Amino acid sequence: MPNWTYNELKVNIDSEQDLKQFYENNKNESSELSFNCAVPLADSDNREANWGCKWDASDVGITLNSNSIKYCFNTPWYYPDMWFKAITQKYPLFRFEIVSSYEGGEPTTKVIFENGKYSYFTLSGWISCDESFNAL
């Protein structure tokens, strides 16, 4: 059984149409968010090498507004860093922020992509998904 990582991803863009397109492009028939939509895998592809985690997003919750989407989801052992890098390259005009809390006691991480640059923060303590953006 894995140690779970609790992730909160916030996606922002001024264009409601662009945001809706992002939403439509990153969901599938079984989930509001699937890593496989932005980074498709063949059956033999290694998920950890392509997504940064072993399995697709699970327990996905979503809040959709006119200029932002907030996803809450779980991943095993680590946040989906390779997938995060892929979506920021695919959508370079968007602002992305992911906060990930680890079930094993590792420090919480926060990564921001804005204006073509990444900022990476390590935070101490456990932050719940609902509190993470308000607490930082």
Please give a structural write-up.
The chain is α+β, with helices and mostly antiparallel strands and 136 residues long. It has a single domain (4-135), classed as 2-Layer Sandwich (Alpha-Beta Plaits), CATH 3.30.70.1270. Helices cover 24% and strands 35% of the residues. It has helices at 16-25, 35-38, 47-51, 81-90, 132-135; strands at 4-12, 58-64, 68-76, 95-102, 108-114, 117-123. The chain is globular and about 40 Å long.
Cα(first) to Cα(last) distance is 30 Å
| Main sheet attributes: strand count, strand direction, barrel closure | 6 strands, antiparallel
- CATH architecture assignment name: 2-Layer Sandwich
CATH class: Alpha Beta
Determine the structural class based on helices, strands and strand pairing.
alpha+beta
Instruction: Please provide the ordered H/E string of secondary-structure elements.
Output: EHHHEEHEEEH
Strand order of the largest sheet: 2-3-1-4-5-6
The total strand number stands at 6
Q: Mind telling me the CATH superfamily name?
A: Api92-like domains
Q: Mean pLDDT, nearest integer? A: 90
Contiguous low-pLDDT stretches (5 residues minimum) are: 130-136
Radius of gyration: 14 Å
Kindly give the count of domains.
1
Number of helices: 5
